[in-house]
Amino acid sequence: MSVTHTEVTTGPAELEPCGRQDHPDCGIRDVLDRVGDKWSVLVIVELAGGPRRFRELQRAVDGISQRMLTLTVRRLERDGLVLRTVYATVPAQVDYRLTETGASLTHLVKALADWSLQHRAPIARARETYDSEHPDHDIR
Fold first, then answer.
1. Residue 80, by phi and psi: left (phi above 0), alpha (psi -120 to 50) or beta?
2. In 3D, which of 116, 112, 114, 37 has the Cα closest to residue 79?
3. Three-state DSSP state, 120
4. Host H or E run for residue 55
């Protein structure tokens, strides 16, 4: 889906399976390793509003520990999604901002957030139905 995609689609997208012998890994696993964890997505969402200092990020991303935030921004920096800038002040100041690549990801994150809001109620109903039909299965 492109950023300018405006058509309403109801069927599944045409996707090629990855990892089969005749179709090698297409790289989606690397992307999902990064954006598939909740902390990375929440940091990207926060940085979409502009540069933030470490403590600002930590306050904004509810529940993230200092260690997990450190690991998350390092991974995002390594992947080229976040730029870490150190300013020569005493004490040193550091801020984080999205790179052009990171900023381009925000459109997909927004689409995913919109999808999840749009489908929240039917997913909740499906879970209730499943749980009532399978009382012995606790998969939460």
1. left
2. 37
3. helix
4. helix 54-60
